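Hey team,

Sharing the Gem (nuclear organelle) associated protein 5 run so nobody has to redo it. Sequence (1256 residues) first:
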Amino acid sequence: MSRCWFPASPNWYLSKAADVNDEGIFAFSAKKLIFLFDVTQQPPVDRGCIAGHMDRVTTVALGVGLKPVLASGGDEHRVCLWDTELRTLVGEHSLHQAAVTCVLIPSIPGNPLVISADDRGFIISWRLGQAGHGDVHSKHCPDVKPITCLSSCPHRPTIIAVGYRDGLVLVLDLQARAVVVARLRGHEDDLQSIAWKPYPGESFGGDIEVEPKACAGMGDGALLATGSRDRTVRLWSLSKEKCIATLKLPFLKRRGKPVNQEASSFQRERIWTSVYWCRNSPTTLISSSFGGELLQWDLSADGKFTSTILGGAAADGQQHTRVVFGLVGFQAEPARELLLSTSMDRDIRCWDLLKPACLWTLPSLGGFVYALTISPVDPGCLAVGVGDCTVRVWDTLAPQDALCVRSLWQGIRSKVTALAWHPNREGCLAFGTDDGKVGIYDVVSNRPPRISNTYHKRTVYALSWGPALHSDTTGDSQWIALYSCGGDGVVIMHNPQQLKSDGINLNNLIQDACDLKQKFAVRSEVSWKPDGKAVALGNEDGSIEVYQVPNLRLVCIIRQHHKLVNALRWHPPLPPGRSETPQSQLLSGMLASGSNNAVIHVHSLRDILSQEGKQDEAVVLVEPYCSLSGHTARITGLDWSPHQPGVLASCSYDGSAQVWDVCSRKSLYNYRGHVGRLMAIAWSHTDPDSVWTGGDDCSLHCWHPSQQEYTKPPKGKKSVEMERKKNVNSKGKGHLASLYDRSETKSPLPEGVEQNWREPCNGTEAGKASAPSSTTDAASGAMFESANFLPPTRPRPELDKRKQDADGWRKRRKPRSNLHLTVLQEQRNVEDLREDCMVLAQMMYNQAGSSTMAQSASRDCIRHGLFVDHDLAQSMIQQEGAFLILNGHHDEQHQLAVWHGDLLKTIQAAADTNQMTDTLVSLAPMVGYRVWVHAVELYVQQLCAQDQPTKAATYLLALHRVHEAIGILRANRLYREAVAVARLRLLPSDPCVGELLTEWALSLEKGGHHPLAAKCYLSCRAPYDAAVAISRKGDVPALQAASRIASITGLGELAAAFALRCAHEMVKRNNWAGAQAALKPHDGLKDHALVFCTQELLHHYLSPMGVLGMSTFEDDTQWNPWVETVSNSDLLDVLIDVFNHHLGVEELNIEKKQKLCSQLAASSQASTGLMTRTQGAGDYSLALREGHRGIFNVNHSNKGWRSSSAIHIWGLTVSADILLQLGYLFQRDGMCRPWISERCAGPDPEPVGRDLPDSW
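Structure output:
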């Protein structure tokens, strides 16, 4: 029946905005809607749209079971469960108090279990109740931080991974009341995606092996992949609870652009890292990259994971061009896995991971569809004007690719609101934008558009090609001009050959040609007759003017519409090959028009246009050929069928499109597939039974009129409301509460949607008449609009400000009364009001015989309370207040209490029912200071119960109760706010400040925010704790900062300890120069500097011999300058020279040298915690020689490697663990290297080699 070819664009910057199930149903959220597509077919087929949320949908999740369901959550704090087949609501809950960020449906038997998370860190498990039982809810809050993503373990569904905005990952076991199974910390920025390894175990099949241990019932453990905004993908082991691999996203070179190793601030703002773990290949991980490329990581390599672009070089043109937000996949066949990706470039792509290659691309739209037009030269070329500042050109007849779409964006800076193809030239497309620009695109070439030098002051609403007109032209023009009509009420003629020249106002041409002096109407639409012999101009006041060329003579004025004209369409000429009939001759002069009054008028102008100047004055038409009524909102588009003469299609703000038979004046077919208002319609030029429509649901539909269920547009709500009000007035007395509810029932416009697309923003008759309109205009449409894509308004031209003020045309809405019951009584029928007047007269003048009537009237204080005396008015206010409380209007009741003067009772009643408000507290001082203090105390208790601690603390500060305010903030873990209050309101010597900072620091350390915790400790004058806190991470920058802080604060020993740890970390990363730089500022670490120097020189010296079993000359190794002389000089000479000159040993006095030797001796005897290995018997030592000279001996006994094993260098004893830490494994099987000789050694071998220099 219908098909959505271009859906709305999936929402951006969300981790779970799209999902797919094993049946191939793909769901994604687009603003307030949820679109469903069957992606097993190529191209994908839409399965409908779910509309029910009133705010942006942030997350969706599909479940698999006996009945397919879909869970969704959004910014409105609501979680819904839908039936995907019927697209109906199954259940919902609103237990969240913040925006829902993630939903999840684990594959657990039974009724669907929906797990949702929000911005406050709360996780809610919700299972629909069985028959006869209610729903089951459970609420958990492992950490008070915004949650960004959720994912359940595929082989243990009750285990879920929770990602937080600060990079933390928690693994929870829902079966054990959400116990934290693992806490994974390593990312430095927002966590954006989580992917589990699809099979149990923590191995990739021979690559990384992790020793499993008991992990909350996970068996052999599990692996987890996470993507973060810090541009890394980390692999985690749940058994070890640590990161086992870090994958850094590479900077790729594409399309001839240089490789940029530094991401700009703009790129960092838009970084999004999505991950997907392939099911068929556990050693393959898919991730997104900076520019939209999909990377395929090979995890089977031995510790070195490499990445390639998915699909290789052949898929370079098929990659996304901007960041990718979602990666979801499913098993299409046993050996075939499909991956779906959504991106900021508004394309949805499907990848076959077996090939791998991109199978198809589904374009999506990021704004309203404002314009549709089909090329008369190429009937299969459809142009779509979209509110996302693009024009989509679709070749609907492409044989290979059914979605062959080009996106034109160059030179367009605002919404595209009008389009028009050139009638003769192929590929020439004119466009108009919301900012008043008019341009022409050459679709065939890739050149940027040509922009006209003449702009409209407001939005361009209509474009039409017609013959060029000049003030001195008397014959036919030789070129076709472009005419544009904008919101400024002017029609401009542009020369397409010279767009840089100024355009000509059509009103000036008419004035010059006809020698007219009067003021022209404000133009709202322009349409040229296909043969170029007449032009129709629609006006804001509802009139239509028809001018005949070449002399621009006004031949007809049509006065049938009473509101702004939105659409004008001339009937097209007969298709080639058809013979003319009397009916076709009549249709050749037909003009259809639509306006804001929801009625389409069709005018027959054939006889008038055939006069050819025989009439002196213009003909005024007040009766149309026919009127087509049925739409309940303004008409936004018209299009005649190019296949069937006399068949007209229309679209309206009532959300439907209608097909009419003009000759028989019947409504044929009605389409209601859109969710929102329609703004554009176009009849297919290749298929007689296809119509294209688009609207504010940001989607493009193609539907077949002959297959529609309805024949007429839906009924509007305006007549229903009027009938309801009429029934209300006829009831008269009694039932005041129900009358109030009915009288106030309206269909308000959704938030962010304007009342009228082409409405004048400043008055006249048209604007005033269209303001009330029907509620369908608003309610039918626009549940999809957002602040970024508001429909442009059509304002009036600028008027003189004095005239505006004098006429008062800009009316203000009358304020709403607080006396609702009284207002309802005044809205009764006239007979009842007259009876009230007679009763009031009898009451005021005490006529005889009317005492009974007067007494009964006095009891009815609502009718006469304003007109009798004080007592009756007091009774009236009491009843009004009770009515307001009953209907929940507490603020208005508080205002009446002030009028009444009984504020004390109102405060006490509001406190008893927890209905205290800011207004009530601000009015409490009218009664007295003590009452105000009591009111504040009650309000603080209410705010604490309502989880508003910040506001409660603010009110306590108004009472100067600083410590109590700080206590409330402290109890709610709002340490930042508590410290701010303490700093501002307490003395510096108050111990509360230090206690707050210490408690905050402990909380920050627990959450992993070590730098901020260190700042708290420094503020508390606890530098030791600050240095320890900032060193918790254990990496080089953290240790350097800790050492620097300890040094600045006078903790020399602690600074030296951190510097030594930092040097060890740098050596592990082959940064020898950095290690020496870390040790240099500390004199007490001179011995360690000598040891590190010896290690570095040995490392560099032995590497070329190939004895280390590994390559040590990596590109990232950072040597000290002195290692360059090792290969050309004697090693011992180099050691002596480095010790003396570079490390400053020669400058030391005798006492410091002796101290240094004792430190070296002590370090050689310190235990390093090496593992002992004992094999066989017999003591031996290994002597390493350089040529024939021994350098040092290694003593070894039959008890294995021990911490006391030593290397003797020039009489200095250095621990043998130096070599072991570098990986020097000595062999005992006789296959030793040539430079290793095995011999028996005594218990205390003598050093071999040179003696110490005299200076030592």
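The first strand starts at residue 2 and ends at 6.

Ping me if you want the raw files.
A.
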